[in-house]
Amino acid sequence: MPLSTQSQTEGDNYVLVASLDNVRNLSNILKAITFKDHAIFNATPNGLKVTVEDSKCLQANAFIQAEIFQEFTIKEDSVGFQVNLTVLLDCLTIFGGSTVPGVATALRMCYNGYGYPLTLFLEEGGVVTVCKINTQEPEEPIDFEFCSTDVTNKVILQSESLKEAFSELDMTSEVLQITMSPSQPYFRLSTFGNSGNAHYDYPKDSDIMELFQCTKTQTNRYKMSLLKPSTKALALSCKVSVRTDSRGFLSLQYLVRNDDGQICFVEYYCCPDEEVEEE
Amino acid sequence: MKFRAKMIDVGCLNHFTRVVNTISKLTKTCILRLTPNNLYFVLSGKVASGGVGMWCELSQANFFDEYQLEGVAPDANEICLEVTPENLSRALRTSQNAKCVKIKLTKKHCPCLTLVAELPTLSSVSRVVTHDIPVDVIPRRLWHDFKEPRMPDFDVSIYLPPLKTMKNVVDRMKNLSNFLVMEANLNGEMNLKIETDLVSVTTHFKDLGNPPWGDDGSQGRSQSRDPEVMAHTRVDIRKLQQFLMGQQVNPSKAMCNIVHKRIIHLILLHEDVSLQYFIPAVA
């Protein structure tokens, strides 16, 4: 196979090598967190974690386990680098963004360590593209200190009907308000825009509600501009878990099935909008 | 000066429309040369078109059932017009189902190419749609600018990879860089490369084949050439992208001549249409 011969000529200096028969199993999930140019990559023997942050208030993480890759070899406990995510996505989709049935683009991703570029070998129909993307020293991702023991409210919903709600959300509203409560309205999304106030209610015994664990009534507001990118992750997902902690921090976790039916996760953490705290 | 032509075959009409659509995607304005045997859509490769040259040749007999031309003079039996191909494209779009399409040179408030389409209706009476497309007549003293371009003395000639694949790759590369290097050798290998501070991307095409040009002068230079050595030219990526975007039909032959560091000469051959496109090198 042409890709393996190319990596041999570059020597065995790779600290990370990851291969996929279908590059979409990586590019699709990365598209779900591409709202900023830069992404922090962290690889461990468990797999790949990609982090994107916005103004210290929002963090998105995509997890692609080692088992998803056809080959995943790592020579250190942890390999980290930062790279321009838009450039990376343009490279991963170099043969075009759409799928042609029966035709897949294969990927071999290699990294030599600090100071070296991220090297991608992509192959489709006998045509090989080699990309070398400059890397930077990875920044430390923010620790939102979101702790599962501090979770006050948690629901798990099937994504289908949340997708509808999110596609209809009034974007003229500066905030998205989330109310979670052991009593009515149970789980409510609210907007306050130019067309007025809108509420989307999901009762606790509706069939799309897979899990309902709310201990305390909580209402929190989050900047709409921060949460808007999460719609991409929602669109890819089949299930989503919504959790808030005692500080009102929001954790959204999306279960995504890739082209081959394997499971990956995307999570978003968001700080509550300052305004509400003052009340 | 007189020009009248008539198309009655739906296949010819569709084909002609596709050609005009392709031209309209390549350039906003161009020269239309009408001769007794052929039509040519021409860009002269001057600064005005960004140095890009185009020569599209159609054999009139393959499209028109009737074709009458009286040029500017008996010894210069042709007409040279400046046209906006998009206008012609639009007019042809409304004529898609026509029983008959006539094109003629007329003088309304200014010189025009008038397109008259007879469209079928449910009744026995046809509906007639007329488009008057303003054109500029190019005087004879300027005709020398629009002659058929000479085949450049190329270093490498190679068949192009599938245009769709090229287009996908070039579209992505355009997001990353303003300039692209095209290189090829006589071993049927072609690379498309971009390089910036952030990223370098190279796409490798193999086993493309090299056209056998025969023993003419331009082959002389390439006959003694080491087949492994690449000839390369760096171009404005948008010009290559524009060329690839316009292609609507797969050509029967597609090839490229590269003059090292000077020019990329693309040639597409269809049954009755040939298109040549010249992209100059940038520093």
From TrEMBL, chain A:
It comes from the Eukaryota. The keyword DNA repair applies. GO terms for cellular component: checkpoint clamp complex. Gene3D superfamilies: 3.70.10.10. Signal peptide: none annotated. It is found in: Nucleus. CDD domains: PCNA. Keywords: DNA damage, DNA repair, Nucleus. The keyword Membrane does not apply. Coiled coil: none annotated. GO terms for biological process: DNA damage checkpoint signaling; DNA repair. Belongs to the rad1 family. This is Cell cycle checkpoint protein RAD1. It comes from Oncorhynchus mykiss (Rainbow trout).
Automatic annotation (TrEMBL), chain B:
Keywords: Cytoplasm, DNA damage, Nucleus. InterPro entries: DNA_clamp_sf, HUS1, HUS1/Mec3. Component of the toroidal 9-1-1 (RAD9-RAD1-HUS1) complex, composed of RAD9A, RAD1 and HUS1. The 9-1-1 complex associates with LIG1, POLB, FEN1, RAD17, HDAC1, RPA1 and RPA2. The 9-1-1 complex associates with the RAD17-RFC complex. HUS1 interacts with POLB, HDAC1, FEN1, PCNA and RAD9B. HUS1 does not interact with RAD17. Interacts with DNAJC7. Belongs to the HUS1 family. GO terms for cellular component: checkpoint clamp complex; cytosol; nucleolus; site of double-strand break. It is found in: Cytoplasm, Cytosol; Nucleus. Component of the 9-1-1 cell-cycle checkpoint response complex that plays a major role in DNA repair. The 9-1-1 complex is recruited to DNA lesion upon damage by the RAD17-replication factor C (RFC) clamp loader complex. Acts then as a sliding clamp platform on DNA for several proteins involved in long-patch base excision repair (LP-BER). It comes from Oncorhynchus mykiss. This is Checkpoint protein. GO terms for biological process: double-strand break repair via homologous recombination; meiotic DNA integrity checkpoint signaling; mitotic DNA replication checkpoint signaling; mitotic intra-S DNA damage checkpoint signaling; nucleotide-excision repair; response to radiation; telomere maintenance. Residues 209-229 are annotated as: Disordered.
